[in-house]
């Protein structure tokens, strides 16, 4: 009997060590970004999937993008406090604001089956998780073990979602950017006959996504609860010497058409205007920028640009705004 218990203990210990090893093989995307973020970072961007438009990793600025699809301002705030020690004095903090963002509560409770919290349980302290649950923490650990094991035994090579590059002699003057971006767009237009027309897909997506985001943006009690979290980021940024900016990326025109002016004022611009007035913060609003919003070839779906669109947008954003702000720093 004694030998049985010893053998069982040894087997359990080996299995436990194996599980810990598999758990530690690989961190999730957000955990990796948070860990690898360098000190003296000059620019950081938070936000939802719309924040991916503000990835400046290949531009001449030390930057970090730590966004998550459907993210809430509560977890933007937790990420900010978790990472602010790594920011350079006078760093630029980009805070993406989307039409639906003010309607989300902390844990997106309107989506019961959404595994939204998994990433945050992996690297944020327990005190930062809203309604922390030990059961949820255990399920996340088991999920990570399963994920890492499947990745380990898989022969597939993980590919980068987006290939980013700049010419060595890239000129960031506004005139050069305008020339380069228009040339890029002309090439796309010239070759568009080689690809399927994206317009029907974009219109269909805009119909569905518009309904979803109107529902999320109108959700209660989220709308009145989420604003203070964003406001706290802005307030602490100002007190810490950082430079916060509200930013909204370009959306395809049919997506914009799904939101009437009354709804946008009540659920979006009313909050943005309040923040601008109270905290003297700029809102850089590209949501309806005709240089991008009217071209279907620049969009992956109705509210996310494809790689061509992101390249053109980032060039504009860097030359029109970031370059001057970095020189001030």
Features:
329 residues, two-stranded antiparallel sheet, Rossmann fold, 12 helices, 5-stranded parallel beta sheet
Explain what you see.
There is one protein chain. The protein has a single domain, classed as Rossmann fold (3-Layer(aba) Sandwich), CATH 3.40.50. Helices cover about 55% and strands about 10% of the residues. The chain contains twelve helices and seven strands. It has helices at about 1-25, 30-35, 75-85, 120-125, 135-155, 175-190, 200-215, 220-240, 255, 260-280, 290-295, 305-329, and strands at about 40-45, 65, 85-95, 245-250, 285, 300, 305. The strands form two sheets. It has a five-stranded parallel sheet, with helices on one face. The longest helix has 24 residues, at about 1-25. The model is unreliable at about 10-25 and about 150-165 (pLDDT under 50).
| Tally of alpha and pi helices | 12
Quick one: overall form? globular
How many distinct domains? Answer: 1
CATH class: Alpha Beta
Q: Remind me, CATH topology? A: Rossmann fold
Q: How helical, in percent, are the residues?
A: 40-55%
Q: In order across it, which strands form the biggest sheet?
A: 2-1-3-4-5
What is the CATH homology-level superfamily?
Answer: SGNH hydrolase
Distance between the termini: 72 Å
- Mind telling me which CATH architecture this is? 3-Layer(aba) Sandwich
């Amino acid at each position: 009997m004694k030998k049985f218990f010893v053998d069982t203990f040894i087997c359990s210990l080996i299995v436990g060590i194996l599980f810990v090893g598999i758990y530690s093989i690989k961190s999730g995307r957000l955990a990796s970004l948070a860990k690898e973020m360098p000190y003296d970072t000059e620019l950081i961007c938070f936000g939802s999937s719309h924040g991916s438009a503000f990835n400046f990793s290949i531009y001449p600025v030390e930057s970090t993008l730590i966004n998550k699809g459907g993210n809430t301002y509560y977890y933007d705030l937790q990420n900010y406090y978790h990472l602010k020690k790594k920011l350079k004095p006078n760093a630029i903090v980009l805070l993406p604001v989307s039409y639906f963002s003010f309607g989300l509560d902390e844990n997106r409770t309107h989506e019961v089956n959404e595994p939204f919290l998994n990433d945050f349980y992996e690297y944020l302290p327990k005190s930062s998780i809203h309604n922390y649950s030990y059961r949820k923490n255990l399920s996340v650990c088991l999920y990570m073990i399963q994920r890492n094991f499947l990745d380990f035994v898989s022969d597939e090579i993980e590919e980068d979602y987006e290939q980013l590059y700049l010419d060595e002699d890239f000129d960031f003057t506004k005139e050069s950017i305008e020339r380069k971006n228009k040339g890029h767009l002309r090439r796309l237009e010239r070759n568009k006959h080689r690809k399927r027309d994206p317009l029907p897909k974009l219109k269909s997506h805009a119909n569905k996504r518009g309904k979803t985001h109107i529902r999320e943006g109108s959700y209660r009690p989220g709308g009145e609860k989420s604003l203070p979290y964003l406001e706290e980021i802005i307030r602490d940024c100002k007190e810490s010497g950082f430079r916060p900016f509200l930013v909204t990326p370009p959306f395809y025109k049919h997506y914009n058409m799904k939101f009437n002016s009354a709804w946008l004022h009540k659920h979006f611009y009313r909050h943005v205007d309040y923040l601008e007035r109270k905290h003297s913060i700029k809102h850089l609003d590209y949501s309806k920028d005709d240089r991008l919003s009217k071209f279907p070839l620049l969009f992956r779906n109705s509210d996310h640009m494809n790689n061509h669109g992101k390249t053109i947008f980032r060039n504009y954003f860097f030359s029109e705004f970031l370059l001057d702000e970095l020189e001030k720093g």
